[in-house]
Amino acid sequence: MFERLEFRARPAEVEPRLVSLELTIVLPAYNEELCIAQVVGQWCAVAGKAGNGRVIVVDDGSSDRTRQILNTLLAVHPELTVIHQQNAGHGAAIQLGYRIALDMDSEWIFQTDSDGQTSPADFEAFWRHRAETAFQTGVRNSRHDPAIRILLSRWHERIVEFIFGVVVQDPNVPFRLMRGDLVKGYLELIPAGTFAPNVLMSVLASRQGVLTSRPVAHSARSAGQTSVKGWRMVRMGLRSLREYLAFRRVVRRAIL
């Protein structure tokens, strides 16, 4: 996969880093041409306020104008790095973003989606409490998604509890602030190409006793549409179940 990546950054960012990053924000993106500029601008502002911050957008083979828009944003936002990969799925894009953030020696890694459904306003509370907890995730109590997705999310919680023996609210939530060393250790246990790596990271953090959750706002999509729906949603659910059952053996052997 790596030989097919296209790395885009400002020329200065090709130079080796002498200073560790305090915060890196990872945004996977797929066909978000109608909102990507606004979302990137909002999260670049967050990275700037955090001090030594960076935003990594992993474009997962978008077929609309997302790619072109991202490339033009590099001239506008000095905090931005853009990675283009062939379409490999949301989970693969997240894992790649995490690995690049770690290569940048990021102390903290934050992940959210690029669809505009989460609010940068909620980030401040997470950042303020980072010294108290190493792994924070949001909980979308008032979720603005189709009823079937909300129902599947609730079943998801029960399945995770049954397989792994831990209670994780909203296990795949795209709003999480994690200490870099934890992300590095967890990624070493999670197979490449996993459909929902964030779920497995939340399971590991819960078992380690470092997971904290807090409510976050969730808005309806203002543009675009989800890429996982219909029968594809069912197929992805079955795939995740197989991956969870296989990962249960890894969790039992892991020394956390």
Oligomer: single chain
Mean pLDDT: 88
Q: Give the spatial strand order of the biggest sheet.
A: 1-4-3-2-5-7-6-8
Structural class: alpha/beta
Low-confidence stretches: 11-18
Helix fraction bin: 40-55%
Largest sheet: 8 strands, mixed
Q: Could you give the distance between the termini? A: 29 Å
Secondary structure: number of strands: 8
What is the N-to-C order of secondary-structure elements (H for helix, E for strand)?
EEHEHEHEHEHEHHEH
Shape: globular
What proportion of the residues form beta strands (DSSP E)?
15-25%
The number of helices is 8
What gyration radius follows from the Cα positions, in whole Å?
17 Å
Provide a concise account of the structure shown:
This protein has 256 residues and is an alpha/beta fold.
Description:
The protein has 256 residues and is of the alpha/beta class. Helices cover 41% and strands 19% of the residues. The chain has 8 helices and 8 strands, in the order ββαβαβαβαβαβααβα. An 8-stranded mixed sheet has the order 1-4-3-2-5-7-6-8, with helices on both faces. Helix 3 (90-103) packs across helix 6 (180-187) and helix 6 crosses helix 7 (197-208). The chain is globular and about 50 Å long.
